Amino acid sequence: MTTTATTAGTCRYTGSYPAQPVQVRRIRIVLAALLRGCPRADDAILVASEFATNAIVHSASRGGEFTLRAEVQPSRLRIEVEDAGGPWHAGPGDDDRPHGFDVVAAIAGSQNWGVNGDASGRVAWATLSW
Q1: d(C-alpha 112, C-alpha 115), whole Å
Q2: CA distances from 53 to 27, 42, 45, 100, 106 (A)
């Protein structure tokens, strides 16, 4: 189920998706349409892709679903992906390459993103301004 609402210069989107890899492409398409003309659309789509991939691959949502939320205001936007939680393994990977949350931090800035929740459910979020 998806809903889109617009009020006083703010556009909100919420959509739930099966936690399957093919859905990452689907959310990219949905966000590209929603964010058409937004100065940071490409950044927001990449951040959402990273969050959705994390929900699909690393959370208890596997086999279930995750929820994407976006809120666009005149000078900023917020992207959220909510999943079913599960074990949390924070910290750097075993190799020297960047991982999904490293990419998000590079795009959003260290103070403009985070993960809230616990093993029963988490929300990864990022705010992008222009």
Answers
A1: 11
A2: 11, 16, 12, 8, 17
Q: Which residues of the chain have pLDDT under 50?
A: none
| Domains located in the chain, CATH noted | 2-129 (3.30.565.10)
**DSSP structure class, residue 90:** -
Helices 41-58 and 22-34: crossing angle, nearest 10°?
150
pTM given for the model: 0.89
Enter the tokens of residue 108: 């959003």
SS3 49: helix
Residue 49 and residue 68: Cα distance in Å, rounded?
10
Question: Whole-angstrom Cα distance, residue 52 to residue 36?
Answer: 20
Contact indicator for 44, 73 with CB cutoff of 8 Å: no
